[in-house]
Design brief:
This protein is α/β, with parallel strands linked by helices. Helix content is 35%, strand content 15%. The protein has 14 helices and 13 strands. The relative contact order is 0.13.
Length: 504
């Protein structure tokens, strides 16, 4: 098969688009020299596209309606049975709908991707199936994962099982709602600004954002490679640790993974917190929208850990606020380049590309008006940074984070864990039909102030439920050193076993 060659006129237009002045005569000369290079493209075009084998049979599934999808959390119901034995034998898992499940449609919350069907399973899917899990479908997620609320997905809003009409949090909205409702045992979420921890907090369950690179992202649609995380959402600490044991470790296909250090996380459970040094992060309580009920419950949770034997004291780390600021250029310019201009995959890394996803997602340009308000806002800011400042703020932010990470790591020389509210508020009402742009954006981003910093620093962070405020769950976040998820699980399991969190 031969790829399409440009005409002389095409070459002249290409040159003009690249800022070159080129006559048709000059364009013809260049055109004559291009064929040898295009011959190499023909060779690539004729070569098979290597993909991992699909090991377990499955069907495309269907989108459930009515009472079968009470909370609007199911994107697709399907069933893929894994191995007969393994750590996850007998467990049901739902995937966030940005995770590739071969032969099953994937929308990533956006109508512009409707009709895309992955050809291969994500690495984490294969690992779970090999461990005996049954994948039961795909959970609704927010429009290209660009919301901390649950009102921006094209299938429709996801409701919080604790209170209909209220946000389940995002962007892993359906994953958290289905776990909280007891419809699945476990779920996979993704986290670039808090999208595992926010919905888990809103829904009163456990969500772990692992250390950046601990879990392979291969087969999960990227937003921005330096902040892409995927991880477990569960109804208990033990299940969370068990699922991470299955997910973690290098796959040889994901350049985000730089020598990840894996631990037997379930062995950390039940070891108590005596002697653990826990720092209450002062800046985590400093945001104007933090609710009194949230702050009180999180501080009560800290007191409970102290009563169980941990050494708990307050610590100030102003660099936390700088990391939050740096998250903005990194995310906004990065997603505009990689997820949008780069057609969901981008360039310049030695990883497994989903060529089908690249082809399918490139169609967003013909449907740009259908993009969510939150994504449009992010792209407008990101494009301004790129076109006016040539990406210098992205680059400078990344440099700043290198220094900030050293400051965080220095604090972890004194403390084993940091503690703060997962999000500053409990679940809020879903915006109604006809909501203003201001309300849509506010409900999408008001809660990311506490979570986003740890996406750019890459430290592991987990939300655990620690009480109710106005009848809705409050989340307490524990943050650890790189690859020290085991210490987080140690503290979380002790906290969980001490009492019913609803009584705090």
């Amino acid at each position: 098969m031969s790829i399409t060659r440009p005409t002389v006129s095409d070459v002249a237009k290409l040159a003009s688009g690249l800022g070159m002045t080129m006559s048709l005569e000059q364009a013809a000369e260049y055109r004559a020299l291009m064929d040898g290079m295009f011959d190499a493209y023909d060779i690539v075009d004729g070569h098979p596209n290597p993909l991992p084998d699909v090991k377990y049979p499955r069907k495309p599934g269907y989108r459930p309606q009515g009472e079968e999808n009470k909370y609007g959390a199911w994107a697709i119901k399907s069933e893929v049975k894994g191995a007969r034995e393994g750590k996850l034998a007998g467990r049901t898992v739902v995937l966030k709908d940005n995770v590739a499940l071969a032969g099953v449609p994937m929308m990533n919350g956006s109508s512009t991707l409707e009709g895309f069907i992955p050809a291969a399973d994500a690495t984490i899917v294969t690992r779970m199936l090999d461990a005996g899990a049954t994948v039961v479908g795909k959970a609704v997620c927010e429009h290209f994962c660009l919301s901390g609320g649950s009102h921006t997905s094209d299938p429709g809003p996801v409701h919080n099982p604790w209170r209909m009409g209220y946000s389940a949090g995002g962007s892993s909205s359906g994953s958290s709602a289905l776990v909280a409702a007891g419809e699945v045992d476990m779920a996979i979420g993704g986290d670039q600004g808090g999208s595992i921890r926010i919905p888990s907090s809103y829904c009163g369950i456990y969500g772990m954002k692992p250390t950046h690179g601990l879990v392979p992202y291969t087969g999960v649609m990227p937003i921005e490679a330096t902040i892409d995380h995927t991880g477990p959402i569960t109804a208990s600490v033990a299940d969370n640790a068990l699922l991470l044991e299955v997910l973690a470790g290098a796959d040889g296909l994901d350049p985000r993974q730089y020598a990840p250090r894996v631990s037997p996380y379930t062995q950390a459970l039940g070891r108590g917190v005596k002697g653990l040094r826990i720092g209450i992060l002062k800046e985590g309580f400093s945001f104007p929208n933090i609710q009194d009920g949230v702050a009180q419950k999180v501080r009560a949770g800290a007191d409970r850990l102290a009563g169980l034997g941990a050494d708990v004291s307050e610590v100030s780390l102003p660099e936390f606020l700088t990391a939050l600021a740096a998250w903005n250029p990194i995310t906004l310019e990065g997603l505009t380049v990689q997820m949008m201009h780069g057609n969901g995959m981008g360039f310049n890394w030695k990883g497994l590309y989903d060529v089908g996803l690249l082809d399918a997602h490139s169609a967003w340009r013909q449907k740009a008006d259908d993009l969510s308000e939150t994504l449009k806002l992010c792209m407008l800011v990101g494009q301004w940074g790129l076109s006016h400042y040539h990406g210098r703020y992205y680059a400078k932010s990344r440099n700043i984070v290198l220094a900030l990470k050293r400051a965080f790591d220095a604090v972890f020389g004194t403390y084993d864990l940091l503690l703060m509210p997962t999000v500053p508020c409990v679940s809020t009402p879903l915006p109604g039909k006809g909501a203003t742009l201001e309300e849509i954006v506010a409900r999408a981003f008001e809660m990311t102030t506490t979570t986003a910093a740890f996406d750019v620093t890459g430290h592991p962070a987990m939300t655990i439920p620690c009480g109710l405020s106005d009848g809705l769950p409050v989340g307490l976040m524990l943050i650890g050193k790189d690859y020290d998820e085991a210490t987080i699980y140690r503290a979380a399991s002790t906290f969980e076993a001490d009492c019913d969190w609803r009584s705090i």
